[in-house]
Amino acid sequence: MSDEVYDGAVGIDLGTTYSCVANYDGNNVEIIANEQGSFTTPSFVSFTAEERLIGEAAKNQAAMNPANTVFDVKRLIGRRFDDPTVKKDIESWPFKIVDNAGSPMVQVEYLGETKTFSPQEISSMVLLKMKEVAETKLGKKVAKAVVTVPAYFNDNQRQATKDAGAIAGLNVLRIINEPTAAAIAYGLGSGKSDKERNVLIYDLGGGTFDVSLLHIQGGVFTVKATAGDTHLGGQDFDTNLL
């Protein structure tokens, strides 16, 4: 990779269970594959006595190193330790969450020491991985990004996500809602038609569920209504089934 900095911004979907990164070349959006050839990367970070693993390698550690393999951190970011949903999640996670002045912190054994990390720091590790995936493809350093979040994320959660980007060395130009991002992709494919359309978008992920009604006309997107649950997704289906 050269020292040249990529002029544009990449788009990153920082998901509860999986994340992905894409770039837009002026004509098409390209989802960038990771080193395994997959277009999505597990949002897992694992800590061992020798190293830190992110993505697929980290997820593979979940069974043998559960106490030090962190996932679902999107359910912690921007929340308080005494949040009822955080309390409920802590009961089901194999890794340890501790209270630091009201903020939840992940506690792990790393390099032979007990370490604590904020949700922003863990998220930054996943964002850094996605940044590296993009840099490998583009052959340039990536400095700017647009990151998506659930439509129902509050201001604290949005700012914490932006902070995670900064820790990863990214200038987060904008935080946009996941359903809006889907609508923009839909609009790119249909061109700047003057035809008036109302589009209902469902975004069911691993940890969140959003529904947005968007009005599209002449390339302009207007969110008319939104609803959702930041704690309803595939993980919850699995938990209730088991």
From TrEMBL:
SUPFAM superfamilies: Actin-like ATPase domain. The keyword Nucleotide-binding applies. One of its GO terms (molecular function) is ATP binding. Coiled coil: none annotated. It comes from the Eukaryota. Pfam families: HSP70 (PF00012). InterPro entries: ATPase_NBD (IPR043129), Heat_shock_70_CS (IPR018181), Hsp_70_fam (IPR013126). Keywords: ATP-binding, Nucleotide-binding, Stress response. This is Heat shock protein 70. It comes from Aureobasidium melanogenum.
